[in-house]
Write a structure and sequence with these properties.
alpha+beta, 8-stranded antiparallel β-sheet, binds protoporphyrin IX containing FE
Length: 184
C-alpha cells in the first residue's frame, strides 16, 4: 500500500470479517459484516455502511530513542500469521486540541507512558496510525488506529487496550469505537 491516504469501508462484505463492534465511549457506527482497507481516497461504488479516511503522517511525540526502538522491534503489517486485527477509532476532546504541543507531549509521554506501554507488546502487535483531523472539519474521528496480531496474541492485545484506557491520556478521549476483525 503506497499511498499515505487510506480509505476504510465497511459493508456486507470485505477483506476482513467483523467479529465485534463496540462503542467504548460515545456513539457507535452502523452495523456491518465486513471491512476493506484501500489505498487512496476511494469513493465506494457499492452501498456501504460507513467509510472513513485517514492519512499516515510524521511522528509528533516519539523521541529519537523511541523511534529507534520502534524501528527495531515493530513488525510489518500483513504477516500471514496475523489473522486477527483491530480498528480502533478515536476522537479527542476540544481541550486536548487547544493544548500547547508541550502539554500534549507531557500528557502522552511522562504522564501516560503511551509508547512505553505499547512497546512492551512488540513484536506481537503490528500497528498503523492514521490521522483524520486535517482532512476536513467533518471527519468524525481524529485517529484511525489499526493493529494486526495472531489469534493467540488476542488476550495480550486486550490487556494493552485496558492499560492504555486507564492512563490520563484517555481522559481526553471523547469518542472511541473498537472493531475486531479476522481473515482466513
Ligand atoms: C501496539 C503497541 C503500541 C505502540 C508501540 C504504540 C505507540 C505509539 C506511539 C509511539 C505514538 C506516538 C506517535 C507520534 O509520535 O506521533 C502513538 C500514538 C497513538 N496511539 Fe499508540 N501505540 C500502541 C498501541 C495503541 C493502541 C492499542 C491504541 C488504541 C487503543 C493506540 C492509539 C494511539 C493514538 C490514538 C495515537 C495518537 C495520539 C495523539 O497524537 O494524540 N495506540 N502510539
Amino acid at each position: 500500500m503506497d499511498s499515505r491516504l487510506v480509505t476504510i469501508t465497511a459493508g456486507a462484505s470485505g477483506s476482513w470479517r467483523i467479529d465485534s463492534d463496540t462503542a467504548i465511549r460515545g456513539p457507535g457506527l452502523a452495523p456491518a459484516a465486513g471491512l476493506t482497507v484501500m489505498a487512496g481516497d476511494v469513493l465506494a461504488d457499492t452501498v456501504v455502511a460507513w467509510s472513513l479516511r485517514g492519512i499516515a503522517s510524521h511522528p509528533r511525540y516519539a523521541s529519537r530513542a523511541q523511534l529507534d526502538d520502534l524501528a527495531r522491534r515493530q513488525p510489518s503489517l500483513g504477516r500471514p500469521t496475523a489473522t486477527r486485527a483491530a480498528l480502533i477509532l478515536i476522537r479527542k476532546s476540544a481541550t486536548w486540541w487547544a493544548m500547547g504541543q508541550d502539554e500534549r507531549l507531557a500528557a502522552l509521554g511522562p504522564a501516560s507512558r503511551h509508547a512505553e506501554i505499547g512497546t512492551r507488546y512488540l513484536p506481537a502487535i503490528a500497528r498503523r496510525l492514521l490521522h483524520c483531523r486535517d482532512l476536513s472539519a467533518a471527519e468524525p474521528f481524529d485517529f484511525l488506529t489499526w493493529f494486526e496480531f495472531a489469534p493467540e496474541d488476542g488476550p495480550a492485545f486486550d490487556r494493552l487496550c485496558t492499560e492504555l484506557r486507564a492512563t490520563s491520556e484517555w481522559e481526553h478521549v471523547e469518542r472511541e469505537v473498537d472493531i475486531r476483525l479476522r481473515r482466513d
